[in-house]
Amino acid sequence: MMHRVGIDIGGTRLKVGRVAGGKVIVRASDDTPHDFDQMIDVLARLVEKVVPEGEPFTLGVGVPGVFDAEITGVVDSPNLRFLDGQPLRPRLAEVPGAEVRLGNDASVAALAEARYGKGQEYDSFLLATIGTGIGGGLILGGELWEGVGGMAGEYGHLSAASAFVPEDIPPCGCGNPGCLEVYASASRMTDRGRARTGDPEIHLPDLAERARAGDTVAMSVFEEAGRALGEGFAQVVHLLDLRVLVLGGGAGAIVDLVRGPLIDKVVERCAGRSHADYVVDRSILANDAGLLGASALLP
Ligand SMILES: [Zn+2]
Q1: Could you tell me the distance, in angstroms and rounded to a whole number, from the CA of residue 56 to the centre of ligand 1?
Q2: CATH 3.20.20.70 matches 120-282
Q3: Domain ranges in the chain?
Q4: pLDDT at 23 over 70
Q5: Backbone dihedral angles phi then psi of residue 42, each to the nearest 5 degrees
Q6: Model-level pTM?
Q7: Alpha-carbon distance 100 to 89, whole Å?
Q8: pLDDT of residue 151
Q9: Fold entry, domain 3-109
């Protein structure tokens, strides 16, 4: 029997899981050594723990980064620099019994959503994972669209510069000034909330509670984030005519606060449409999205 295994390569943890029936049934994890050879060794050991000895398996791997055209390895991964230019797929394929495929981490989360989450309701959508940065994955007609090197759906680096004047807002991690993730990632929303409320300890859930209670300072952070997300989604709509944006990562919990300004902005930007044409929904998958989606990369 062919088993399905997913790997989630994160900046701090390596997670490996064997998946069956849409669930992670056996799992193993360890810290991420920031050295390529050591990381391969640790992954090989974790895979051995989750697969019955001698049995064949497919290995789908979610990685935060952009790949070369043949998808053999990462050419740019800001949080895992030791992976840049390394032969990730060939080295993992040396694990006995493994057939390997790599996928961008946000694309993998979108694939999980398509197979096991909101994909049961929506045929085509953009999934945005909102955390330290903003990742994106594109599902078109039920299938994952990754592009040539896995860069498709990089929603966080679409430009939102015209959403408002960026007075107190430093450039994006990618070096550009107006990416929408500088307004709408969880980290940047938290930073702005701290600066504006004068509370250096406040976290996003508390800021969200204040906004729901009508605190206009807290509300301003989410309204800006919503407008920036809408500015970016309007570009996606113009390119692909999508109607559905699914928010995952930590941002699932603030969908209610960003949805209004987000859809307002999309309608303002896209002629001939009304509010009823767009859906902003939240992911229903919890922390296993990375493993579930990675395990679904191979047929
Ligand atoms: Zn950027």
Answers
A1: 40
A2: no
A3: 3-109, 120-282
A4: yes
A5: -65, -45
A6: 0.88
A7: 6
A8: 86
A9: Nucleotidyltransferase; domain 5 (3.30.420)
Neighbouring C-beta atoms of residue 255, cutoff 10 Å: 18
92 vs 14: CA distance, rounded Å: 14
Residue whose structure tokens are 């998808």: 71
Ligand 1 mean position to 27 CA, how many Å? 33
The reply to whether domains 3-109 and 120-282 share a CATH topology is yes
pLDDT at residue 19 is higher than 90 = yes
Identify the residue with better confidence: 78 or 211: 211
252 CA to middle of ligand 1, Å?
21
125 C-alpha to ligand 1 centroid (Å):
21
pLDDT score, position 247: 94
pLDDT value, residue 79: 79
Lookup: tokens for 202? 């406040």
Residue 145, pLDDT score: 96
Question: Averaged over 69-96, what is the pLDDT?
Answer: 91
Q: Distance, CA 45 to ligand 1 centroid (Å)?
A: 35
How many Å lie between the centroid of ligand 1 and the Cα of residue 276?
30
Alpha helices in the chain (DSSP H): 36-50, 88-92, 105-116, 181-184, 186-197, 204-212, 216-240, 255-269, 289-295
Compute the distance from residue 178 Cα to the ligand 1 centre, in Å: 7
- 206-217 pLDDT, tens digit per residue, is 999 999 999 999
Among candidate residues 140, 73, 62, the one with its CA nearest the CA of residue 108: 62
CA angle 128, 129, 134 (to 5 degrees): 85
Dist. CA 135–CA 84, nearest whole Å: 19
Q: What value does the mean pLDDT of the chain take?
A: 92
